[in-house]
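Quick one:
INPUT:
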């Protein structure tokens, strides 16, 4: 039986991006079993009018309000029937046969819950893109990084990561996920709003015994930074808060207290660095993130009990057992291959 694939793009005021990038998705996503859907998150521009007039072949789900990334996708995917979801940002250019390898891998192995293609930069196509690169990892303190990108150091793609391999997380910029597993895990945590919700989902899938895989046989080009600029105080707040939520929800019991304590120390160091830079908005973002973390502990405790199973009582093998901060800034290891 040919599996049904739903490519779902969440849109919010992205008329220009849709006009620019939808043509490549339409061109390289043909097939009777593939459906292309734009879920609109309450746009106030002319996105819906433009879609109706210029892309009538695209199915539109009008969500009528801005739910953010996490809940927006949960709302949209609850209305979609498919074997596989392809969660795709509106600022992604896809390439020929981009669907083939991820779907083939999942069809061949039921333990694979999600797959990420190679993510290259749209503006600098010789380089990996910040959000995803050649597959995501985290270190023992929850700091995310990628094969091909550590912090702001982005590598040139010379084929050095052209192997199909298990990773810790797959980027939400282009995420192939088995629909059944997405729903069983409860989808994205809607409280995250945006940023790191895909890492949380992947960790919960791992805690259920499933694999997250990267394939270099599928390539897409991502603009990046479309929702919030990388230096935005709101983005900084979400990254700090959501990262603490991520750790609390998913760490095994014997790692929780010590890891959170050490992470608090590292966040204090980050706040001192912001102070030295006279970045008052940044300091406010960090303090706000910690305040909301403590405030949300009762709800986080409830979620933690839901997300753990016997398989979730140990750290996933794809977690770096070192500090990526120490490796990068002290040992000057700037590339994934050097870790």
């Amino acid at each position: 039986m040919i599996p049904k694939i739903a490519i779902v793009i969440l849109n919010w005021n992205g008329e220009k991006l849709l006009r620019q990038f939808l043509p490549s998705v339409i061109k390289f996503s043909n097939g009777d079993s593939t459906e292309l859907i734009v879920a609109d998150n309450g746009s106030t521009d002319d996105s819906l009018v433009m879609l109706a007039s210029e892309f009538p072949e695209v199915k539109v789900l009008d969500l009528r309000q801005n739910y953010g990334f996490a809940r927006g996708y949960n709302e949209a995917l609850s209305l979609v029937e498919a074997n596989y979801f392809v969660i795709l940002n509106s600022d992604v250019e896809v390439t020929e046969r981009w669907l083939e390898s991820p779907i083939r891998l999942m069809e061949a192995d039921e333990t694979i819950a999600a797959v990420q293609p190679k993510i290259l930069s749209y503006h600098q196509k010789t380089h990996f893109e910040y959000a995803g690169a050649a597959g995501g990892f985290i270190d023992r303190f929850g700091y995310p990084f990628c094969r091909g990108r550590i912090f702001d150091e982005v590598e040139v793609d010379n084929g050095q990561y052209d192997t199909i391999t298990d990773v810790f997380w797959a980027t939400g910029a282009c995420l192939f996920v088995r629909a059944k597993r997405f729903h069983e895990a409860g989808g994205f945590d809607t409280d995250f709003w945006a940023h790191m919700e895909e890492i949380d989902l992947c960790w919960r899938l791992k805690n259920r015994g499933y694999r997250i895989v990267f394939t270099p046989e599928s390539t897409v080009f991502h603009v990046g930074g479309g929702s919030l600029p990388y230096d935005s105080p709101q983005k900084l707040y979400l990254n700090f808060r959501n990262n603490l939520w991520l750790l609390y929800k998913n760490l095994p019991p014997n790692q929780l207290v010590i890891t959170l304590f050490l992470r608090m120390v590292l966040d204090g160091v980050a706040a001192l660095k912001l102070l030295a830079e006279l970045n008052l908005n940044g300091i406010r973002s960090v303090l706000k993130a910690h305040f909301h973390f403590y405030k949300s502990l009762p709800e986080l405790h409830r979620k933690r009990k839901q997300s753990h199973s016997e398989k979730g009582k140990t750290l996933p093998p794809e977690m770096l057992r070192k500090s990526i901060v120490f490796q990068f800034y002290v040992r000057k290891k700037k590339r994934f291959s050097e870790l």
